[in-house]
Design goal:
The chain is of the alpha/beta class and 146 residues long. Helix content is 20%, strand content 38%. It has a single domain, classed as D-tyrosyl-trna(Tyr) Deacylase, Chain: A (3-Layer(bba) Sandwich), CATH 3.50.80. The chain has helices spanning 39-51, 99-114, and strands spanning 2-15, 18-23, 26-32, 55-56, 62-64, 72-77, 120-122, 130-144. The longest helix has 16 residues, at 99-114.
């Protein structure tokens, strides 16, 4: 699994010109699900994601978590994060999870996140999406190999 986490002032995702998910202050998270990923792995990533202290405190230090600032989540499935670009110029996606396993795991992550975060928005699995954001910082973290 690989997560690209961006601290945002706001973010949204559109499908066919229609907004399907939008948040204010919080985290936009692109999720790459790989073949070997499981619910246990997803739980580990969610725990880390939700606990990250990457929001500014009163002294301007990154010391606050999503809960501390009342932040929101926008979770978007993105299989291209699983690309292998070692050979040639065309990425290979052999590590990406098959949609039959990846989609239920993505749905599981959304459901679990909703148990801990009051506002959780989402993209549409497998859709062509247009993502807009105002990155706060900019502040971007890649989580992998936990």
């Amino acid at each position: 699994m690989k997560l690209v986490i961006q601290r945002v002032e706001e973010a949204s995702v559109r499908v066919d010109g229609e907004v399907v998910g939008a948040i204010g202050q919080g985290l936009l998270v692109l999720i790459g699900i790989e073949q070997e990923d499981t619910k246990a792995i997803a739980d580990k990533y969610l725990k880390k994601l939700i606990g990250l202290r990457i929001f500014m405190d009163a002294e301007g230090r990154t010391n606050l978590s999503l809960a501390d600032v009342g932040g929101e989540l926008l979770l978007i499935s993105q299989f291209t994060l699983c690309a292998n670009c070692k050979k040639g110029n065309r990425p290979s996606f052999f590590k990406a999870g098959d949609p039959a396993m990846a989609e239920p795991l993505y749905e599981y992550m959304i459901a679990e996140a909703k148990k801990q975060v009051p506002v959780v928005e989402r993209g549409i699995f497998g859709a062509i999406m247009k993502v807009s954001l105002i990155n706060d910082g900019p502040f971007t973290i890649v989580l992998e190999d936990l």
